[in-house]
Design goal:
The chain is 51% helix and 6% strand. With 414 residues, the chain is mainly α. 43% of the residues are buried. Mean pLDDT is 92; it is low at 1-14. The structure holds flavin-adenine dinucleotide.
């Protein structure tokens, strides 16, 4: 397959434009991709042409991850313009996100064991001089593996890696460098604009052979050469035959948590980076809105400034679109500002978009009983799309795809 011709206009639009964390920008990018980008997506999407040419993919992930735009909106938009057949490949990618989200919600112990694995991985690395050195080289782009080092630099400079590069990178990290997968996943989370607890953790587990048990993803020199159009010196030996990782821990299925009814009374709206488009969460408008962000240091090592800025901007956009008087605070203590604002507005209800498993959810679960003690009810509102699709994410992706195929077709608006 040869590289298609890209006009400078297309390239400029998709990549050289700054990643502005607003819903308006996400919608504009979605429209442009739907009209001009989708046509060649299924043939071209696996090619990684490097940071100067991202015209063959949508680059929508930072906006979807913050839910400035939703999976449902993307699917509806594409099916309004294209046939299901033409849009199928792209929709299938979008649905991976839905699948991973739903799967992690129903196997929450995976998140806990990943968190513990970061600390045990650090412990392992710090007790072995060779591993300490290798880990340092891996996160600074100095392993001597040309492609891997180049992706490390790209990730730190652009806060983004192509999907294929993420697969190769994770595979080399785990099977060639033999570093703990949890440290690699954490490195991604700190630097990706789209860093997402479910997509990232489960993709790393998938590459390692822990998600689909016994089946790992092995990066090969020939595959990298082909899909990067020979951009790298492929002189380092990759482990192309390694066995999958295994783990002793079982991760039991747990049904999705059922949610309380939303309040009929006045309420305060809380916006977090998990969902920055909360306009239609409840039937009525909130009396006021507050955005809360954890500081960049609080999420198991520091997030890069670019990642933090994007998330912060997304929360600001989410609040501003609801209430011009709303504010966004960056703090570790979320209890006091919520109680203060609820009391000053004379309300006893706070509503927020459902927060899937991850640091924000942990924070809210820890303060929910304390708010209750203060006479304030915190309620979560789950989007209908999640409510419908997530329960199907119990086994592998292909079973999920099969059981949701008709649901997706139904999203086409007449
Ligand atoms: C090791 C590894 C880690 C990853 N970590 C993340 C992460 O933290 N956050 C994240 O959003 N994606 C993650 N991905 C998935 C995927 O690489 C990115 O979503 C994609 O590269 C984003 O670029 P794009 O929007 O141009 O993608 P496109 O190719 O244009 O795909 C369209 C959309 O489909 C969704 N998508 C595609 N593939 C996946 C996938 N495997 N999982 C979930 N959604 C997908 C994204 O929303 C994306 O915007 C990871 C993949 C791997 C292999």
């Amino acid at each position: 397959m040869s590289k298609r011709q890209v006009t400078s206009n297309e390239t400029g639009y998709f990549w050289q434009k700054k990643a502005v964390p607003t819903r308006a920008e996400g919608l504009e990018r979605l429209s442009s991709f739907a009209v001009t980008g989708l046509k060649s997506y299924s043939d071209q999407r696996n090619y990684d042409y490097g940071p100067s040419d991202r015209s063959n993919i949508s680059l929508l992930s930072p906006w979807v991850r913050h839910r400035l735009i939703s999976e449902q909106e993307i699917i509806e938009k594409l099916l309004n313009i294209h046939s299901h057949r033409d849009a199928e490949k792209y929709i299938q990618q979008v649905v991976w996100r839905t699948y991973f989200k739903g799967w992690l919600e129903q196997h929450p112990s995976v998140w806990d064991s990943y968190q513990k694995g970061i600390w045990s991985g650090l412990n392992e690395v710090s007790h072995d001089k060779n591993k300490t050195r290798l880990y340092e080289k891996a996160i600074t782009g100095q392993t001597g593996i040309d492609c891997f080092d180049s992706w490390t630099v790209d990730l730190m400079e652009h806060s983004y890696l192509h999907n294929h590069a993420r697969l190769w990178f994770a595979s080399i990290w785990v099977f060639t460098l033999k570093l703990p997968w949890e440290l690699g996943a954490n490195f991604f989370m700190r630097h990706l604009l789209d860093g997402d607890p479910a997509s990232n953790t489960l993709s790393w587990r998938w590459v390692s052979g822990l998600h689909t048990k016994g089946k790992n993803y092995l990066a090969t020199s020939s595959n990298i050469k082909k899909f990067t159009l020979g951009r790298f010196k492929m002189d380092a030996l990759l482990d192309e035959v390694a066995s999958p990782l295994n783990e002793l821990t079982e991760h039991p299925f747990q049904s999705l948590t059922s949610l309380e009814n939303l309040p009929n009374d006045d309420f305060l709206l809380l916006v977090t980076k998990e969902d920055c488009n909360s306009v239609d969460l409840a039937k009525d408008l909130p009396v006021s809105a507050l955005g809360l962000m954890l500081s960049e240091k609080s999420e198991v090592f520091e997030n890069s400034p670019a990642v933090f800025e994007f998330s912060h901007g997304a929360v600001v956009d989410g609040v501003e679109r609801i209430s011009s008087a709303g504010e966004v605070l960056i703090c570790e203590d979320w209890l006091e500002p919520l109680i203060d604002l609820a009391r000053s507005n004379n309300v006893t209800n706070i509503v927020t978009a459902y927060t899937p498993i991850g640091p924000v959810n942990s924070k809210l679960q820890s303060i929910k009983p304390l708010l209750k003690n203060a006479g304030i009810e915190l309620s979560f509102s789950r989007k209908q799309y999640d409510q419908t699709f997530w329960p199907h994410a119990t086994k592998g992706f292909f079973a999920f795809k099969k059981s949701t195929n008709n649901l997706i077709k139904e999203l086409a608006v007449n």
